[in-house]
Specification:
This protein is mainly alpha-helical. 76% of the residues lie in helices and 0% in strands. The protein is built from 4 helices and no strands. The longest helix has 38 residues. Pfam families: DUF3886. This is Trehalose/maltose hydrolase-like predicted phosphorylase. It comes from Metabacillus niabensis. InterPro entries: DUF3886 (IPR024980).
């Protein structure tokens, strides 16, 4: 008898979405979509800020820093 009871439970697996009505499901999907878009926008803004900071640091480098980063050698131009 226990096997029959267990088999009936397996056939009747219930998920959370079975309890939610369609309107609520759609609202949750929209919220998820909005949050995903918002997260992508934040990541894009962060990347833009990083690029801007990198440009600013490059712009404010001293002559010594630029010279040390250069691959040119004065010996090549003798």
């Amino acid at each position: 008898m226990k096997k029959n009871a267990k088999k009936k439970q397996d056939d009747q697996t219930v998920s959370v979405s079975d309890y939610l009505n369609e309107d609520l499901k759609e609202k949750l999907k929209m919220v998820k979509k909005d949050l995903t878009i918002e997260q992508q926008e934040k990541e894009a803004e962060l990347e833009r800020k990083k690029i801007e900071e990198r440009k600013q640091r490059e712009k404010n480098k001293s002559f010594e820093e630029l010279l040390s980063e250069s691959s040119l050698s004065w010996k090549d131009f003798k």
